[in-house]
Amino acid sequence: MKFSDGFWLHRPGWDVLTGREIQSMERDGDSLIVYVSTKHLPHRGAELDSTQLTVTLTAWSEGIIRVRIEHFRGGLDQTPFFRIAKPELSDEGAIQIKDGHATVSAGMLRAQVSDDKGGYQLEFFNGDKRLTSSPHRAEGIAVSPEGTKYLYEQLLVQPNECIYGLGERFGPVVKNGQVVDLWNADGGTASEQAYKNIPFYLTNKGYGIFVNHPEKVSYEVCSEVNTRVQFSVKGEVLEYFVIQGDTPANILDSYTNLTGKAPRVPDWSYGLWLSTSFTTDYSEETVHSFIDKMEELHIPLSVFHFDCYWMRPSRWCDFVWHPEMFHDPTGMVKRLHDRGIKVCVWINPYIGQQSHLFDEGKKEGYLLKRPDGSVRQWDHWQPGMAWVDFTNPEARRWWKDKLRELLRQGVDCFKTDFGERVPTDVQWHDNSDPERMHNYYSFLYNECVFEVLQEERGIEESLVFARSATAGSQVFPVHWGGDSEPTFGSMAETLRGGLSFGLSGFAYWSHDMGGFEGHSSDAVFKRWFPFGMLSSHSRLHGSASYRVPWIYGDDAVECARRFVRLKNRLIPYLKKAEDAAVGHGIPILRHMILEFPHDLGCSHVDTQYMLGPSLLVAPVFSEEGDVDFYLPTDRWINILDGHVVEGKGWHHEVHDFQSLPLMVESGTVLPLSNNAQTTTGTLPEGLTLAIFGSRVSSQEIMIGTGSDETCIQIDRKGSTVTIKKASGIKDWSVSIVAAQYECNEGEEAGKHGIKEIAESRVIYPDKNSEMISITFSDGENELPS
User: Fold this and answer.
1) Is the dihedral of CA 625, 628, 630, 631 positive or negative?
2) What are phi and psi of 552, to 5 degrees?
3) Distance (Å, rounded) from C-alpha 651 to C-alpha 656?
4) pLDDT at 181 > cutoff 60
5) pLDDT digits 0-9 by tens, 478-489
């Protein structure tokens, strides 16, 4: 929201007051309180009849300072609130007040308040390095012609500083120059609206900003003042956290310490999900025919998803299987389990008027009401539908018990669709503010579903497949990108959404391969499929048409077979990427800046990504196969065919439908499962260490998680590399791609049998040996400096 008319004027009819000078400062426990006048105070009495801002700075935790700006402080606290943790400071936050200056320190982060440089200003430092600042007259109050009050803050942006995050947004990943309003909406992937609005951004200059408001937050990202990020909220209070971090990854770690870390997800969730699609005809016979065909074509399948019409029309949700389509749902679920397939069913947080649950919910007070006490309804989506009021503990219990019946029937997880279009002309059970509840509803909805999954399945087997989110929703994985179109343009915007989402604190993400709307062309399907399988989670799902590979030709079948099997082999690698997600808030699908934070060449790249720490993925967004990609270092190898690309910078290639730039730096070691049929089992009995190039360094390759974790030790001396077997792995080998070598210890067995990666030679340890030793003999075996 803009309050100015150019640099000098305010918008017509608006009253704008800005902080001009400090009247006084005082310490209050671990906080500094600054009283800032919005007018010049040349003499005693000048403060009379004036407006004042109260700015409170609190050393919140290591590297985090909270800023709270208030006009009138007498208002009542309005719920809901984000659930914010307050970790202990290793050293007590230091506050100093001297000669009209004051500082608040939290670890390396320091806030400094002064008014000797032309007026009041607030600056933030990492040690002696200034990160950002709110300069003179940059924070204040704006009152609209209608009398609505807003508080706002402006923070300076440096040259070459890029702003990232603010949720799953499908425009350019670098947000500089954009106007962003955080208000959850069912707007698809082709608009400025977003399903998942997160009031957090980070920059490539060592800090992030979390605005602690669940209601609508409006951002002007270098779009009102070219050198500033402005954020504003309606009301009397604006609160935000400044988060210091040396790299974007460090900032994400600290931010998710505040708002929550994602948990682990079940191994089976990494495999291929196949859906009925939305409005297509389907029954148990259809489902089994799809699974039969997948088995016939040797395309491994992990999860089958039943979309909306597993229930009868206009009753969503009543949680009753459509009796004409599914005659024996309990038996059907068991038959799917017997085939090794998990079961997901679609739900939404609404109840159509035809549902038998509507009258029950109305009678018990479980449905969202208007201020006059009547049930809030509309005809959009479901005729006469109402919203479940998740602020009512009894409504939550009631809803969970309905889901519990399905879980005890054998259902494994839920696709938690919708949750964005939440009205504000309502009365919540707990008297929550409707504006604040609009975005936050997505949190309560998914929390409720996740809780019953944990109660019935345990923490390690719980996940949802959610569309809506707000800050903190990362603790309820997984999320997917919403309604895309079957075009290359939509494929690209989908990737942009995933990159922004990962930079907003979310670890896991998926999207509908081939696009959701309409009918995908063969080319779009075949190009989208590798991108989908090389995401953390992978689903085939459409609207009015099926997304099964054989519809799109033999090439599509071969493409599906190769990339599903490849992902299944990558599970040991992906599970270690999951460690970084759970422990540090780092997404599995990563913007390049998370791995190469100091390379400005990476900062604007939003057509490729890192899958985990080592795999660079550049999807092909054209039928012809042309693709441009950026390499941040000098020597990379495509794991699919072994070809080497030399030179840092941009490269252009042409790929067929079975390929794309899937690159690793020379010297990368990837642990690959020998089982391409399944994703289950964190510690595979059979393992291949694929070594790409000869720049291998001494390192430990960790396999498995928790009590199953084990280590493969790689030691290098000169050109000789020794690999020592890990305990718990029965069958192991080494495969070497794009390097010349001599085998010192171990048995060479010719070309390896992993069809999904580049052709190479395989080395097995000698009988009763736990070690393989090789000496690189090509001219490229020196480690880079």
Assistant:
1) positive
2) -100, 15
3) 17
4) yes
5) 999 999 999 999
Nearest partner of 347 among 391, 310, 375, judged by Cα = 310
- Cα–Cα distance for residue pair 566/691, rounded to 1 Å: 16
Q: Please give, one letter per residue, the 3-state secondary structure of 297-341.
A: CCCCCCEEEECHHHCCCCCCCCCCCCCCCCCCHHHHHHHHHHCCC
Percent of the chain with pLDDT over 90: 90
Asked about 420 being catalytic, the answer comes back as yes
Tokens of 22: 């400090």
Per-residue pLDDT tens digits for 242-292:
999 999 999 999 999 999 999 999 999 999 999 999 999 999 999 999 999
Question: How far is 592 from 239, CA to CA, in rounded Å?
Answer: 30
**Residue 703 and residue 726 in contact, taking contact as beta carbons nearer than 8 Å:** yes
| d(C-alpha 618, C-alpha 653), whole Å | 11
Does residue 379 have a pLDDT over 60?
yes
Only one residue has tokens 């935000």, namely 240
Residue 292 annotated in active site: no
DSSP labels for 25-56? EEEETTEEEEEEESS---STTTTTT--EEEEE
Are 470 and 505 in contact, with CB atoms under 8 Å apart? no
Q: Which of 153, 215, 435, 483 is catalytic?
A: 483
Eight-state DSSP code of residue 11: P
Structure-block tokens of residue 23? 């009247």
Rg of the chain, C-alpha, whole Å: 28
Consecutive H or E run containing 663:
strand 662-665
Flag whether pLDDT at 31 surpasses 70: yes
Residue 55 CA: distances (Å) to CA of 34, 60, 72, 115: 5, 15, 12, 14
Q: CA-to-CA distance for 456 and 574, rounded, in angstroms?
A: 26
Pick the catalytic residue from 70, 215, 417, 517: 417
Strand 9-10 relative to strand 4-5, pairing: antiparallel
* Token representation of residue 414: 């839920």
Provide CB contacts within 8 A for 99, sequence distance 6+. none
Distance separating the N- and C-terminal Cα atoms of the chain: 49
Which residue in the block uniquely carries the two structure tokens 């702003």? Answer: 163
Residue type, 219: Y
Q: Judge whether residue 577 has pLDDT over 80.
A: yes
187: left (phi over 0), alpha (psi -120 to 50) or beta: alpha
The secondary structure element, H or E, covering residue 363 is: helix 356-364
Residues making up the chain, counted from first to last = 785
Report whether 588 contacts 508 (CB < 8 A). Answer: yes
Please give the average per-residue pLDDT across 558-563, as a whole number.
98
Q: Which pLDDT value is given to residue 337? A: 98
Catalytic residue among 123, 139, 267, 420: 420
CA proximity to 731, closest of 771, 690, 754, 764: 764
Cα 333 to Cα 284: distance, rounded to the nearest angstrom: 10
Is the pLDDT higher at 753 or at 533?
A: 533
* Mean pLDDT confidence for 641-645: 96
pTM of the model: 0.97
Q: Which residue has the tokens 């720049």?
A: 695
Q: What average pLDDT does this structure show over 205-210?
A: 98
Q: How far apart are CA 60 and CA 45, in angstroms?
A: 36
Token duo for residue 18: 């800005």
Asked whether the beta carbons of 469 and 450 are under 8 A apart, the reply is no
Q: What is the identity of the amino acid at 654?
A: V
Pairwise CA distance, residues 648 & 632, whole Å = 5
Q: Torsions phi, psi of 713, nearest 5? A: -100, 125
DSSP string, 548-616: -GGGG-HHHHHHHHHHHHHHHHTHHHHHHHHHHHHHH---SEE-GGGT-TT-GGGTT--S-EEETTTEE
> Which conformational region is residue 775 in: left (phi greater than 0), alpha (psi within -120 to 50 degrees), or beta?
beta
Mean predicted lDDT score pLDDT of the chain:
95
Instruction: Please give the share of the chain, as a percent, with pLDDT higher than 70.
Output: 98
